[in-house]
Design brief:
Radius of gyration: 18 Å
Helix content: 40-55%
Distance between the termini: 10 Å
Oligomer: single chain
Strand content: 5-15%
Number of strands: 6
Length: 198
């Protein structure tokens, strides 16, 4: 899947340089030295896609990441790739730690985001004053992180998110997920070892 994401990004970038493709990566993949050595080699050959590919980890995985996976995440970061954190039910995140790790996007469900802020949840940061709910998006931005409201299923949630100044949203209200056509990744063959394994 990770190799295919690179191929899809390559094809999409030809049509529009402004695309960004979010691709899930597991800590199991990051911890597997055999797999990761092949994958990092493949990404070195495709480092021109670094601005167009964002590797996504779940919050729990990120917060419990092992030493090998953390080191390999750093290797991706050194190549210019950035990361997204999803499955966050609240904004109570340490923004300084996320910035150091190369996290540039955080996804919180629209309903959870509004509820979390109403309940007084705030991110950890260097700001020493009470932050208003409408200031949270700007606070994330101060650390180079875009807040994305996901799972937006209806207009009520979309309006709540807009009132919080969240600039990005995703969910069925905007369009249901669709399968990518196989032609999107036919152009370049996979590395020989990966092709044999698939």
């Amino acid at each position: 899947l990770l190799f295919r994401c690179v191929q899809i990004a390559r094809r999409m970038v030809k049509q529009d340089r402004r695309i960004a493709l979010f691709c899930n990566i597991s800590t199991a993949s990051l911890s597997d030295e055999v797999f990761f050595s092949q994958f990092i080699g493949f990404l070195k050959d495709n480092r021109d896609l670094a601005a167009s590919m964002i590797f996504e980890l779940g919050r729990t995985s990120f917060e419990t990441i092992g030493a090998v996976a953390e080191r390999n995440l750093g290797r991706l970061f050194d190549l210019g790739f950035r990361f997204s954190l999803d499955r966050c039910e609240s904004v109570d995140l340490d923004l300084r730690a996320l910035e150091r790790a190369g996290i540039r996007y955080v996804k919180v469900p629209g309903t959870s985001l509004a509820e979390s802020l109403r309940n007084g949840d705030r991110p950890l940061s260097g700001v020493n004053r009470e932050v208003e709910p409408r200031e949270v998006v700007a606070l994330f931005a101060r650390y180079g992180i875009e807040l994305i409201a996901d799972r937006i299923e209806n207009e009520r949630v979309a309006i709540e998110v807009l009132e919080l100044d969240v600039g990005y949203g995703q969910g069925n209200l905007f369009g249901a997920p669709r399968a990518i056509k196989e032609s999107a990744y036919e152009e370049r063959p996979l590395p020989a070892k990966v092709a044999r394994a698939s």
